[in-house]
Amino acid sequence: MTPVHVPVLAGELIDLTAPTKGETAVDCTFGAGGHARLVADRLGSTGTLVCIDRDPAAESRFDELAAEVACETRFLRMDYAEGLAVLAEEGLAADIVYLDLGISSMQVDARERGFSYSYDAPLDMRMDPSQELDARAVLNGWDERQLAQIFRRYGEDPNARRIAREIVRRRGRAPLETTGELVEAIEAALPAAVRRRFGGGHPAKRVFQAVRIAVNGELDSLDRALPLAWDLLGPGGRLAAISFHSLEDRRVKRFLVERARGCVCPPDFPVCVCGHEPEAEPVFRRSVVPTPGEVAANPRSKSARLRAARKLREEH
Ligand SMILES: C[S@@+](CC[C@H](N)C(=O)[O-])C[C@H]1O[C@@H](n2cnc3c(N)ncnc32)[C@H](O)[C@@H]1O
Questions:
Q1: Which listed residue, 96, 165, 251, 292, has the most CB atoms within 10 A of its CB?
Q2: 103: closest CA among 155, 53, 63?
Q3: Strand partners, 26
Q4: In angstroms, what is the span from residue 52 Cα to ligand 1's centroid?
Q5: Which one of 35, 38, 53 would you pick to mutate in the ligand 1 pocket, going by the greatest count of ligand atoms within 8 A of its CB?
Q6: C-alpha span between 234 and 165 (Å, rounded)
Q7: Is 103 in the pocket of ligand 1 (CB under 6 A)?
Q8: Which residue's alpha carbon is at the smallest distance from atom 8 of ligand 1?
Q9: CB 114 within 8 A of CB 106
Q10: What does the alpha-carbon distance between residue 39 and residue 48 come to, in Å, rounded to a whole number?
Q11: What does the alpha-carbon distance between residue 221 and residue 225 come to, in Å, rounded to a whole number?
Q12: 73: which DSSP letter?
């Protein structure tokens, strides 16, 4: 397989999830299959790897991988939260479930899909091209308040309101059609003095992230998927997630911290009366970030954070 996406924190993911011969693993975000290949090699001919992705381009990559690895493989082309629900319905017991969130280089580099502010393309940004909602519909259809809200929440953009106002002003003349027009609107909303004050790379970066998250309902999928992934695991099972911005990482961290908590009595109780026991132990106490060497070799890894936990017991 020709590499079109360099897997991020790959060695670290393998160390923390420790795939072993004969185990069953679920890759929720197959992408170009970089992590999946490493995991499959460790599962051996008696193992099983279930891969999920909602992008048809990932499915073509999966067909290549399936022909080359020894373990049993299977692909579900759907949202990973739906995929995990399907696997639960089927009664699958997994040893490992992992997610590598966001988009792949394969998607960013496919210019016509509109994920990148560096290329002029139609406003699309759908991971699943059969989905109805696309970036054009969001940017031309949502009202100014909704746009400002997603730019602020999902892009953490300090200029959210200015940018939303400029987009609405421009689309009053003619709908926004291309990523180039979106970049122009963002640049027009941010005079040089404002840009200098807030700094932080390309002025369109945060808005593009925000629109992509909104189009693909990314945070909602993650919120639905984490408990489903956890429930697929038996005792000793490992859950790992690689996130690329604080909105994702906060969710993963909160989920794992809650599972690792023992006593849940109110803090002013002198003794524990709840008898609550932790369900998880962290495989590594903090998050794992890429080495400077990895960031130099693959700048897209810069903001990555990996968290993982091991299941101690079944939930009752
Ligand atoms: C960062 S890439 C994964 C790269 C992969 N680990 C590799 O080594 O090639 C993320 C992938 O997850 C997919 N994805 C993101 N959110 C998804 C969701 N909610 N359901 C299904 N697939 C999703 C994207 O389509 C993309 O292919």
A1: 96
A2: 53
A3: 50, 97
A4: 8
A5: 53
A6: 50
A7: yes
A8: 34
A9: no
A10: 10
A11: 6
A12: E
Pocket flag, ligand 1, residue 249 (CB < 6 Å): no
3-state SS, residue 177? coil
Report how far residue 39's alpha carbon sits from residue 18's, in angstroms, rounded to the nearest whole number: 9
Report the C-alpha gap between 260 and 283 in whole angstroms.
11
For 82-96, the pLDDT digits (tens) are 999 999 999 999 999
53 lines ligand 1 (CB under 6 A): yes
Spatial distance between the Cα atoms of 206 and 157, rounded to a whole number of angstroms: 6
| pLDDT at residue 200, rounded to an integer | 64
Rounded to the nearest 5 degrees, what angle is found at the Cα of 142, between the Cα atoms of 136 and 144?
A: 120
Please report the atom of ligand 1 found closest to the CA of residue 36. Answer: 8
Cα 47 to Cα 17: distance, rounded to the nearest angstrom: 15
What pLDDT, in 10s, does the model give residues 159-205? 999 999 999 999 999 999 999 999 999 999 987 767 766 666 788 99
Atom 14 (ligand 1): residue with closest C-alpha? 29
3-state secondary structure of 26: strand
Task: Specify the amino acid at residue 224.
Answer: R
The pLDDT tens digits for 227-258 are 999 999 999 999 999 999 999 999 999 999 99
Q: What sign for the dihedral angle of Cα 260, 95, 68, 62?
A: negative
Residue 143 has pLDDT above 70, yes or no: yes
- CA-nearest residue, atom 4 of ligand 1: 31
Give the phi and the psi of residue 27 in degrees, each rounded to 5. Answer: -100, 110
Best substitution site from 27, 41, 86, 104 to test ligand 1's pocket, by max atoms within 8 Å of Cβ? 104
What is the crossing angle of helices 80-90 and 218-232, to 10°? 20
Q: Does ligand 1 have an atom closer than 6 angstroms to the CB of 100? A: yes
Q: Which two tokens stand for residue 257?
A: 């911290």
Range list of β-strands (E), the chain? 24-27, 48-52, 72-76, 94-100, 233-243, 280-282, 305-311
